[in-house]
Each structure stands twice: as C-alpha cells, then as structure tokens.
Amino acid sequence: MPNVTNPPPPPAHARRRSSTSRIDFDGTVVWNNTPVSGLPQLEAYFHASRDKDPQPEIHLRPDRRAKYDIVAKVLAAAQRDHMKKIGFVNVAEFRD
Fold this sequence. Notes:
Distance between the termini: 51 Å
Radius of gyration: 16 Å
Strand content: 15-25%
Shape: globular
C-alpha cells in the first residue's frame, strides 16, 4: 500500500528543471549567471533547452528599471524557440 502521508519524491527524470534569465537595468541579459552577448546567443540557449526532457522552466527576472522592449524581445525569443513554461520571478519588487 502506498504511503499517502509521506509519498516518495518523484523520480529524477520527472523533476522539473529551471533556467534563470535575468534582465539588468542597463539591458544586459544574463542566462544562469552568464552574461549573454546578444539575442542570437540567448536563442541558442533556448534552442538547446527546448528538446530536454522535461523541458526546463524559464524563470525571467527583469530589473524594475529594465526597458519593456528588452523584456518583450526575450519573451519573443523564448516563444520562437517553443519554450513552454515561462514565468516572472520576484515581481513583488515592481510594486511601489
């Protein structure tokens, strides 16, 4: 009988992975603590992540002073490369 009060952790292959894309106030995009030279390099990271099983979640952390244009370009690049799970992290700092 399975133990419903203390279930075992999911198998390693079923655990969700995540990658963080940070957008600094000056427009610098950082992928997993590595500065990105431009959108083509960021798209290469997305492309490499796209076919992983399971596909990693993309945690987007824009600085509150980052320009919307840069954030929109990062989101569009993720969409072009068929990233399925994208979420904004730490958005509480946007509130005044």
